[in-house]
UniProtKB/TrEMBL annotation:
One GO process term, biological-process aspect: carbohydrate metabolic process
Entry protein name: Citrate synthase
Short name of any one Pfam family annotated for the protein: Citrate_synt
Native organism: Caldovatus sediminis
Family of this protein: Belongs to the citrate synthase family.
Involved pathway(s): Carbohydrate metabolism; tricarboxylic acid cycle; isocitrate from oxaloacetate: step 1/2
Catalytic activity line of the entry: oxaloacetate + acetyl-CoA + H2O = citrate + CoA + H(+)
SUPFAM superfamilies attached to this UniProt entry: Citrate synthase
GO molecular function list: citrate synthase activity
Catalytic residues of the enzyme: 267, 318
Cited Gene3D superfamilies: Citrate Synthase, domain 1, Cytochrome P450-Terp, domain 2
Keyword terms of this UniProt record: Transferase, Tricarboxylic acid cycle
Top-level taxon in the UniProt lineage: Bacteria
GO cellular component terms given for this protein: cytosol
Length: 382
């Protein structure tokens, strides 16, 4: 019998809208004030005063590092950046046209098979594995990207900061400090955001007792979707499709006519503005000045104003991040992998938190299918 024939249907919150699934001490989203804190620090404050490495340390340890703690953290991260020759060879063998998100998902899965502590799900081993993932993910993203273009990978440089090294492994050079700072800020803004879909995926996988590589592989799969992390790529495709500021309003009107989604707008939790957008927009504007191309920010400005006026919908972080990465010189398919390189910090913090006080995540479904019925043997099914 279907559940519906025996009992009244309980309240079902489709998409788990508004459901508190657990407690967490990592970050807090306050939609009523459009604000976000990591371990009690406002994200804007962290962006102006800290490096991405300090924020990674904060997310994993609960406190900002002292100078000595930061030096040790940086040293360990830098020392773990290289990939094994076997992993590099596997990456070289990926299909040339594979999406970089599929490539990094597969690379993280392979890192798990190679990791000497893969089966150890203790807190200490999971922290060491999180560090190895943080360090190796940029190298793996860049290697797949370069192989796909017929270029040799650039070995990571342990003397460079996390953000400098990201540019180094992708392009073979580090841009001016202003560009590196804008990139570092984007990583801080992308690092953590409570129980979003990919983080919840990571926690669900960790709740089964599986290891962090399994959890992060699943999280990357969840992040790829255009309703989540994939939106930063979709935003840039949209801006390029519009092409010129004069065409933005008419283009949007066409979307309204078809009730289509406009990428980079809307959010499950923030309904009156994403806390991270003003900071990211400021740095995207700086990139437009550095590059001397205001077109994308001008189109963005018109879209944001019209979306607000016509639909009362605000942009989310992916909206300014897309053009910022484009202006920094990244190819569009690298945008969501950059999100991975940052969010590994938040994901790992949640995996550790889930493991520290675990209960298997297993909700219920309300059955609405056909009534129970006998199996008709194959010979009698016609
Ligand atoms: C880093 C991140 O992951 S941020 C999210 C990135 N994703 C995107 O930018 C994709 C575009 N946005 C969306 O698809 C949605 O806003 C989501 C998935 C982010 C949030 O979805 P929900 O919380 O389910 O929003 P919900 O569907 O309730 O939206 C309320 C109304 O606004 C509309 N709406 C929401 N976002 C958009 C949008 N981007 N374009 C047009 N209309 C929108 C919905 O259609 C809905 O209208 P209705 O009441 O007439 O049906
Ligand atoms: O919180 C969400 O649902 C999506 C988001 O903004 C993020 O993961 O950064």
């Amino acid at each position: 019998m279907s559940d519906a024939t025996t009992q009244p249907q309980p309240e079902i919150r489709k998409g788990l809208v508004g459901v508190y699934a657990d407690v967490s001490a990592i970050s807090k989203v306050m939609p009523e004030t459009n604000s976000l804190t990591y371990r009690g620090y406002a994200v804007q404050d962290l962006c102006e005063n800290c490096s991405f490495e300090e924020v990674a340390y904060l997310l994993w340890n609960g406190e900002l590092p002292t100078r000595a703690q930061l030096d040790a953290f940086r040293k360990e991260e830098a020392a773990n950046r290289a990939l094994s020759p076997r992993l590099l060879k596997a990456i070289e063998g990926y299909p040339r046209d594979a999406h970089p998100m599929d490539a990094i998902r597969t690379s993280v899965s392979l890192m798990g098979m190679e990791d000497p502590e893969v089966a150890d799900v203790s807190d200490a081993a999971t922290r060491r594995k999180a560090m190895r993932l943080l360090a190796k993910i940029p190298t793996a993203i860049a290697a797949a990207h370069r192989f796909s273009k017929g270029q040799a990978p650039v070995p990571p440089d342990p003397k460079l900061s996390f953000s400098e090294n990201f540019f180094h492994v992708v392009f073979g050079k580090v841009p001016q400090p202003e560009v590196v700072k804008a990139f570092d800020v984007s990583l801080i803004l992308y690092a953590e955001h409570t129980f979003n879909a990919s983080t919840f995926t990571a926690r669900t996988i960790a709740s089964t007792g599986a290891d962090i590589h399994a959890a992060i592989t699943g999280a990357i799969g969840a992040l790829k979707g255009p309703l989540h992390g994939g939106a930063n790529e979709a935003v840039m495709h949209m801006l390029k499709e519009i092409g010129e500021p004069e065409k933005a309003a008419a283009w949007l009107e066409g979307k309204f006519d078809h009730r289509a989604l406009v990428m980079g707008f809307g959010h499950r939790v923030y309904k009156s503005g994403d806390s991270r957008v003003p900071t990211m927009t400021k740095y995207a504007e700086r990139m437009a000045e550095v590059v001397g191309d205001r077109r994308w920010m001008e189109i963005s400005r018109i879209l944001a104003a019209e979306m607000l006026r016509r639909k009362n919908i605000h942009p989310n972080l992916d909206f300014p991040a897309g053009p910022a990465y484009y202006l920094m010189g990244f190819e569009i398919p690298l945008f969501t992998p950059i999100f991975v390189a940052s969010r590994i910090t938040g994901w790992a913090a949640h995996v550790l938190e889930q493991m520290a006080d675990n209960r298997l995540i297993r909700p219920l479904s309300w059955y609405t299918g056909v009534e129970q019925r006998p199996v008709v043997p194959l010979a009698q099914r016609g």
